[in-house]
Amino acid sequence: MEDSRASNINEILDRDRGGRCHDVAELLLDPIIGYHAIAFIFLLVVVMLASFIGRGPTLIAATTSALLWDFFFQLPRYSFRIESLDDQILFGMYFVVALVLGQLTAKN
After folding, report:
1. Is 98:58 a contact under the CB 8 Å cutoff?
2. Among 56, 61, 68, 104, which residue carries the largest CB count within 10 Å?
């Protein structure tokens, strides 16, 4: 287990991409809480943003968060392909809920 964790850490640290924050989130959050719970964190951020910004930026935040979650956390990672039917339904529901909650929370 320890050797597997060390190789996972080394793999993430060796990647040559600019998204180091995402790498840290992937390393720390994904193995502990899973990508379904990460969607709820993203959703919370959209709702919190909506209480401070208008409707247009809230729509952009909801769309961006759904795409980022799909690309970085859903399997297969680093693609916009969603393999399982459960994850396709979850992605669609996440997108709709993020848009609706963002609109309900947004300032007029």
Report:
1. no
2. 61
